[in-house]
Amino acid sequence: MSLTLPPSSRTPSSIPTIKGSFSHTLSVFVTMTTHGSLLDSYTFPSVVKAYSTLCRVLHRKSLHGSTFSCSVDQDIFVGTNLINMYGKHGEIGDARKVFDQMLQRNMVSWTAMVVGYVTIGDVVEAKKVFDVMSLRNVAS
Protein backbone atom coordinates (compact mmCIF):
# COMPACT_ATOMS: atom_id res chain seq x y z
CA MET A 1 0.00 0.00 0.00
CA SER A 2 1.50 3.32 -1.01
CA LEU A 3 0.81 6.55 0.78
CA THR A 4 0.43 9.61 -1.39
CA LEU A 5 -0.42 13.10 -0.34
CA PRO A 6 -3.48 14.72 -1.83
CA PRO A 7 -2.57 17.29 -4.50
CA SER A 8 -3.63 20.17 -2.24
CA SER A 9 -0.99 19.24 0.34
CA ARG A 10 1.81 19.28 -2.23
CA THR A 11 1.26 22.81 -3.48
CA PRO A 12 2.99 26.01 -2.39
CA SER A 13 -0.27 27.08 -0.73
CA SER A 14 0.22 24.28 1.82
CA ILE A 15 3.46 25.81 3.10
CA PRO A 16 1.74 28.15 5.59
CA THR A 17 -0.15 25.14 6.97
CA ILE A 18 3.10 23.21 7.41
CA LYS A 19 4.75 26.20 9.11
CA GLY A 20 1.65 26.52 11.28
CA SER A 21 2.09 22.89 12.29
CA PHE A 22 5.73 23.54 13.23
CA SER A 23 4.65 26.64 15.18
CA HIS A 24 2.12 24.52 17.04
CA THR A 25 4.84 21.96 17.83
CA LEU A 26 7.04 24.69 19.30
CA SER A 27 4.12 26.10 21.27
CA VAL A 28 3.40 22.69 22.80
CA PHE A 29 7.12 22.23 23.55
CA VAL A 30 7.31 25.58 25.36
CA THR A 31 4.17 24.73 27.34
CA MET A 32 5.63 21.36 28.29
CA THR A 33 8.91 22.86 29.47
CA THR A 34 7.24 25.62 31.49
CA HIS A 35 5.03 23.07 33.23
CA GLY A 36 7.98 20.82 34.04
CA SER A 37 6.92 17.96 31.78
CA LEU A 38 9.44 15.21 31.18
CA LEU A 39 11.07 15.67 27.80
CA ASP A 40 12.32 12.48 26.19
CA SER A 41 13.57 10.87 23.01
CA TYR A 42 10.02 10.85 21.65
CA THR A 43 9.60 14.59 22.15
CA PHE A 44 12.85 15.88 20.71
CA PRO A 45 12.82 14.65 17.06
CA SER A 46 9.61 16.58 16.30
CA VAL A 47 10.84 19.65 18.14
CA VAL A 48 14.24 19.55 16.40
CA LYS A 49 12.47 19.42 13.03
CA ALA A 50 10.30 22.40 13.97
CA TYR A 51 13.34 24.37 15.22
CA SER A 52 15.16 23.50 12.02
CA THR A 53 12.39 25.08 9.99
CA LEU A 54 11.49 28.11 12.08
CA CYS A 55 14.27 29.11 14.46
CA ARG A 56 17.54 30.99 14.49
CA VAL A 57 21.00 29.69 15.35
CA LEU A 58 20.78 30.62 19.03
CA HIS A 59 17.52 28.70 19.42
CA ARG A 60 18.96 25.65 17.66
CA LYS A 61 22.01 25.65 19.94
CA SER A 62 19.79 26.02 23.00
CA LEU A 63 17.65 23.08 21.91
CA HIS A 64 20.77 21.00 21.33
CA GLY A 65 21.92 21.86 24.85
CA SER A 66 18.55 20.70 26.17
CA THR A 67 19.19 17.23 24.78
CA PHE A 68 22.10 16.90 27.21
CA SER A 69 20.15 18.11 30.23
CA CYS A 70 17.32 15.69 29.37
CA SER A 71 19.79 12.81 28.79
CA VAL A 72 18.68 12.12 25.23
CA ASP A 73 21.86 13.33 23.52
CA GLN A 74 22.86 9.74 22.64
CA ASP A 75 19.48 8.74 21.20
CA ILE A 76 19.98 7.82 17.53
CA PHE A 77 16.80 9.58 16.37
CA VAL A 78 17.57 12.77 18.29
CA GLY A 79 21.17 12.77 17.01
CA THR A 80 20.12 12.20 13.42
CA ASN A 81 17.60 15.04 13.61
CA LEU A 82 20.28 17.33 15.03
CA ILE A 83 22.64 16.40 12.17
CA ASN A 84 19.85 17.13 9.72
CA MET A 85 19.03 20.45 11.41
CA TYR A 86 22.62 21.68 11.43
CA GLY A 87 23.33 20.40 7.91
CA LYS A 88 20.22 22.07 6.51
CA HIS A 89 21.54 25.43 7.73
CA GLY A 90 25.13 24.92 6.58
CA GLU A 91 26.40 24.47 10.14
CA ILE A 92 28.41 21.45 9.06
CA GLY A 93 30.93 21.67 11.90
CA ASP A 94 28.13 21.29 14.44
CA ALA A 95 26.55 18.50 12.40
CA ARG A 96 29.87 16.66 12.27
CA LYS A 97 30.42 17.07 16.00
CA VAL A 98 27.03 15.48 16.73
CA PHE A 99 27.77 12.71 14.22
CA ASP A 100 31.21 11.96 15.67
CA GLN A 101 29.85 11.84 19.21
CA MET A 102 27.08 9.37 18.37
CA LEU A 103 27.74 5.96 19.88
CA GLN A 104 25.36 4.33 17.42
CA ARG A 105 24.57 5.33 13.84
CA ASN A 106 22.22 3.99 11.22
CA MET A 107 21.83 4.53 7.49
CA VAL A 108 19.71 7.63 8.09
CA SER A 109 22.34 9.30 10.30
CA TRP A 110 25.09 8.53 7.76
CA THR A 111 22.92 9.86 4.94
CA ALA A 112 22.11 13.03 6.91
CA MET A 113 25.83 13.68 7.25
CA VAL A 114 26.46 13.09 3.53
CA VAL A 115 23.55 15.40 2.63
CA GLY A 116 24.91 18.06 5.00
CA TYR A 117 28.22 18.11 3.15
CA VAL A 118 26.47 18.17 -0.23
CA THR A 119 24.28 21.07 0.97
CA ILE A 120 27.35 23.25 1.55
CA GLY A 121 28.92 22.06 -1.71
CA ASP A 122 31.66 19.92 -0.18
CA VAL A 123 31.26 16.85 -2.37
CA VAL A 124 34.78 15.64 -1.56
CA GLU A 125 33.97 15.30 2.15
CA ALA A 126 30.53 13.88 1.30
CA LYS A 127 32.26 11.17 -0.74
CA LYS A 128 34.68 10.44 2.11
CA VAL A 129 31.79 9.94 4.54
CA PHE A 130 30.00 7.79 1.99
CA ASP A 131 33.09 5.64 1.47
CA VAL A 132 33.57 5.17 5.23
CA MET A 133 29.88 4.27 5.51
CA SER A 134 30.48 1.43 3.04
CA LEU A 135 33.53 0.23 4.99
CA ARG A 136 31.43 0.10 8.16
CA ASN A 137 29.03 -2.29 6.40
CA VAL A 138 26.17 0.16 6.39
CA ALA A 139 23.97 -0.74 3.44
CA SER A 140 24.20 1.83 0.67
From TrEMBL:
It comes from the Eukaryota. Keywords: Repeat. It holds the Pfam family PPR. PPR repeats lie at residues 75-109. InterPro entries: PPR_At4g14850-like_plant, PPR_rpt, TPR-like_helical_dom_sf. The keyword NADP does not apply. One of its GO terms (biological process) is RNA modification. GO terms for molecular function: RNA binding. The keyword Hydrolase does not apply. Signal peptide: none annotated. This is Pentatricopeptide repeat-containing protein. It comes from Clitoria ternatea (Butterfly pea).
